[in-house]
Amino acid sequence: MTLIKANVVVKLKSAVHDPQGETIRHALEQLELGQIESVRQGKFFELTVEASSKEEAEKIVREVALRVLSNPVLEVFQVEIES
Amino acid sequence: MPRFAVCVFPGSNCEEDVQYALQNILGEPTDLVWHKDTSLEGYDAAILPGGFAHGDYLRPGAVARFSPIMTAVQKMANAGKPVIGICNGFQMLQEAGLLPGAMLRNQTLTYICRYLYLSPEQRDSPLTVGLTEGEILRIPIGHADGNYYADDETLEALERNDQVVFRYVNAQGARDDTANPNGAANAIAGVRNERGNVLGLMPHPDRCYQEELGTADGRKLFGSLITWTKERT
């Protein structure tokens, strides 16, 4: 068993309006740092998993992301296993 | 005589208001039940109160749904007994999959705490059975995440099945943009499950059960819950 690091990004489904991202985009307009067309805000999680393989770690993290870290009604997630 | 249970989570802050309304104002035995308890045996209805259960970290209600008591709540729901979620309790029921939809941050991005008007859309629900036809309620809200969201298909099903129990309206009882405080889809303030025994709402009947609190309309909702529960025990 080794410790394997995983990153999980949770974001709103593209069809869901994101009032926080929209507010950030408005603020960016004031900065005149170039044209920012849209901003979507999400959440980022770093997990350290004890597993026998990367495949097993990914399976566990996907389950955690689906059942706890995201709400499937609103959100989607991406899992990345660090090498 | 029915017994009511109010489930208490670390960070709940409305459990005593609910208990006071049911027990002291309306005279029904009501117990506070800790979230680590595993049984609601002997209770005829359960209420999940408002607050910030487990600090509302991750998402409101997301951690609370894994509290041991939620297994007993699920059991009550399956048995057809009334399960009511108020504000944070509503969010828990959504996270637990007992009610459809989810809450987005309020469109204003602010915590909103104020009185507003509600239209009871159904009168055969555990919280509205005692209301008169066409009655508009004045009840306060206090939340940051009450912007009801469900995909189009779910919204259509909710409307078709008469699952929308409360909507935000103006003082005249009409839907308009100023009456919807948080951007909720279809101005939804409360929904029930298909069976009709699980009901969640964002407004707080537990903050308005006597005139001294600005309105006593909340008492009508608790009165309905008592009537509904007695008819079924």
Could you explain the architecture of this structure?
The complex is a heterodimer of chains A (83) and B (233). Chain A is of the alpha+beta class and 83 residues long. Chain A is 35% helix and 34% strand. Chain A contains two helices and three strands; from the N terminus they run βαβαβ. Chain A has a three-stranded antiparallel sheet, with helices on one face. Chain A is elongated. The mean pLDDT of chain A is 94. Chain B has helices at residues 15-25, 69-78, 88-95, 152-160, 217-231; strands at 4-8, 30-34, 45-48, 83-86, 102-104, 112-120, 137-143, 147-149, 164-169, 188-192, 198-201. The mean pLDDT of chain B is 97. In chain B, strand 1 (4-8), helix 1 and strand 2 (30-34) form a beta-alpha-beta unit. In chain B, 56% of the residues are buried. The interface between A and B is medium-sized, with 11 and 20 residues.
Outline the secondary-structure elements.
The complex is a heterodimer of chains A (83) and B (233).
Chain A: E1 2-12, H1 19-31, E2 42-51, H2 54-69, E3 75-81
Antiparallel strand pairs in A: 1-2, 1-3
Chain B: E1 4-8, H1 15-25, E2 30-34, E3 45-48, H2 69-78, E4 83-86, H3 88-95, E5 102-104, E6 112-120, E7 137-143, E8 147-149, H4 152-160, E9 164-169, E10 188-192, E11 198-201, H5 217-231
Parallel strand pairs in B: 1-2, 1-3, 3-4, 4-11
Antiparallel strand pairs in B: 5-8, 6-7, 6-9, 9-10, 10-11
Mass-distribution shape of chain A = elongated
Mean pLDDT of chain B: 97
Question: What is the straight-line distance between the termini of chain B?
Answer: 8 Å
Radius of gyration of chain B: 16 Å
- Largest β-sheet summary of chain B: 9 strands, mixed
Shape designation of chain B = globular
Structural class of chain A: alpha+beta
N to C succession of SSEs of chain A: EHEHE
User: Biggest interface between protein chains, with counts per chain?
Assistant: A-B, 11 and 20 residues
Helix content of chain A: 25-40%
Radius of gyration of chain A: 16 Å
The chain-level structural class of chain B is alpha/beta
Please indicate the percent range of residues of chain A in DSSP E strands (runs of 2 or more): 25-35%
Number of helices of chain B: 5
Strands across the major sheet of chain A, in which order? 2-1-3
